[in-house]
Structures are given as C-alpha cells and as structure tokens.
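USER:
I wish I could look at a protein chain and see how it folds. I am handing you a single protein, as its sequence and its fold in token form. As I understand it, each token names a local backbone shape. I hope you can help me see how the letters and the tokens relate. The protein I mean follows directly.
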Amino acid sequence: MGIPDRIILTLYTFLMAVVAVLVTLCSLDVFSQRRITEFIGSIPGNWIYAVGGVIMLLVSMRLLFAGLGIGGGHSMQLSESPTGNIHIGKRALEEYISALSQEIYGIYNVKVIAKLEDESINVRINASIEPGINIPEATGEIKANVKESIKKMTGIEVKEIEVYFKQIKAKEE
C-alpha cells in the first residue's frame, strides 16, 4: 500500500471513529430521537450528502482493492508468443531476491519489496547484519548478486536496489 493509500486510510479511519462515537452517543440517548429524525429527514434531496456518500463509496472501494492487492503491479510479462505469454509474479521475485541476499555471509532476516515497472524492477531490501561484517562490501555483493541473477533468470533489468540494515547483531539460531 502506497503513501497516498495510507493517508486515505488514516482519514477514513478517523471518519469511521467519529461515526462510531456518534452511534455510541445515540445509543446512550445523549442525542434526542427527535433530533436524529430531523437530521435523517434532511438527507433526501440534499446533494451534499449524495456527494459525500459517493466519495465514501469510492474511497471504500479503493481501500478494498489496495488491501486485496488488486490493480496491477503484481506480475510482469517476460515474453509473448503465439502459443502464450510468460509472466512472473511479484511475490516470486521478492522471495527469490530474499534468498539471493541471504546467500551473502552475515546477512539474515531479509525482507524484500519489489516495484515492477514496464521493463525494469526497483528493489528495496531490509535486512539484518552480523557485527564485524563490512557493510559496503556486503551491500555491493548483494546488489551485484541480485542484478546478475535476476537479469540472467528473467531478462529483466534491475534498475535500482536500496539496502537497509535494520539491525546489527549476531544471528540467533
């Protein structure tokens, strides 16, 4: 889920919290039934409520699709022929890149986020590293290994690789 989706989700969650508080206050009889009936009676014919309802529906659908992972960027076409197409999934690439990264001595607990573009991939690798490992050398090895292996296996160019070490400590076994 991207940053715009997270912002929308935060605002939507805040709106739902306000609605939940209002429903709770209504059930505790803080608002009189007459006021609630008057409010509901003002909704028909008021286009502002219709626009708000449509916006909430669209936001709900967008969040649902983002949460389910629907909407492109989850596979990449490797080749096309009269007998069929070959695709590779984003998750397959991420798991493979994770395994490649952990082949480097001292690197463990690797999590990968791949961003598939038209003809290339951008990769973010979050990992832990053991103390005493030369970080620039290990990072260089990871990048070289991933770029070469992905290019050889899929023919896809790895445009950018970002490596983040979240923890420096000995691997617990």
About this structure: The two ends are 32 Å apart (CA to CA). The helical segments are 3-27, 33-42, 47-68, 90-102, 135-154.
